[in-house]
Amino acid sequence: MSSKDVSFKPEKKTTIGHDGYGPLVLAIAIGTAGGFVFDWLKMPLAWMLGACVFATVAAFFGLRIGMKVRLRQGMIIVLGVLLGSGFTPELVQRLGEWAVSLCVLTGMTMTGAMLCYAWLRRTTDWDKPTCYFAAMPGGLNDMTIMGGAMGGEERAIALAHALRILTVVLTIPVWYRLVNGAQTSVLAMVHGPSGNDWKDYAVLIACGVVGAVAGRLLRLPASFMMGPMIVSALAHLGGLTNSQPPGFLVAAAQVVVGTAIGCRFVGAALDRLHKEMAASIGAALILIGCAVIFAKITVALTGLNLDATVLSYAPGGFAEMSLIGLALGIEIAMVATHHLFRLFLIIFTGPLVFRTFLKHDH
């Protein structure tokens, strides 16, 4: 089957999945139900994981679900502010300890990407640009847009990245639940003082608004999360506040982010995409294997915490991995710093490597 037949839609400018408010309401209702079920099962990151699973199943069954990109961006801003609150002066002093880990992450990213490229070339009939940008563990939208600009098939690249994120999100929290017995309610995720006053809320809202605008103007990768996270981190480091967004808002953000993952599979027919889906899931498992192996090497070299290092290296989305770290009580500044580094590394070097080594012989 040609990659041109892949009936899979990358994220549009306004909607993921079906357009309109009916599909949006249905998607959020399904996602919320999933969140309640997974919360009842005491799964870590229950609201995102449950929403993700229920929405994905709904998409494959052909239900008309959709997610407004603006709503997802708004919730991503909330999560960015929340992540920024995890940066403390003590953690910043530890940046030096992460130098070796960031170097190993560079090697792991290159190794994982090469292995995934070879795997996708062998198991699909996608062309070289499509395989290359599908193999890069970068942001879904960034890789889809770059890959399309370099002559790749956008729908196939989006499918590969959506499945990578889905595989990682379903694998890592469940592993921690089954092996380590991890279970976290959303309220336990927000460790800060619950009695926020109007000044705290004013600072948090300002962090979100200023961060989102600055992130867009500076064209940061994952700008709606990274911008607010950086501004929030500066506000918390500067002592302007030590508060966090309220727990119900964090739960709502998880539902929206999880539901959006599921909505990416609208139009992805299982019977026609099974070969590409199996290849994409295989690529995700290769990247997870690389993350575990290289994390163990890093721990042997540095003595860093293994769980924190695995999560820092895991090939999930920036928002999803940071949330999992938060839910599991793992050092969020370390996880976020490593994922930002990986995003910048891929965005700056990915197209360059492609032009140098692959463009002329595709």
Describe the structure.
The protein is mainly alpha-helical and 362 residues long. The chain has one domain (9-361): Na+/H+ antiporter like fold. It is built from 16 helices and two strands. The protein has helices at residues 21-40, 46-60, 69-84, 89-92, 99-123, 128-135, 140-149, 154-180, 186-189, 198-217, 223-237, 247-263, 270-302, 306-313, 318-327, 332-358, and strands at 15-17, 66-68. Strands 1-2 form a two-stranded antiparallel ribbon. Helix 1 crosses helix 2, helix 3 (69-84) packs parallel to helix 11 and helix 14 (306-313) packs parallel to helix 16. The radius of gyration is 19 Å and the shape is globular. The protein starts with 14 loop residues before the first strand and ends with a helix. Mean pLDDT is 82; it is low at 1-7 and 185-193.
CATH topology: Na+/H+ antiporter like fold
- CATH class call: Mainly Alpha
Helix percent band: over 70%
Number of E-state strands: 2
H/E element sequence? EHHEHHHHHHHHHHHHHH
Order of neighbouring strands in the sheet with most strands: 1-2
Strand content: under 5%
- Characterize the biggest β-sheet: 2 strands, antiparallel
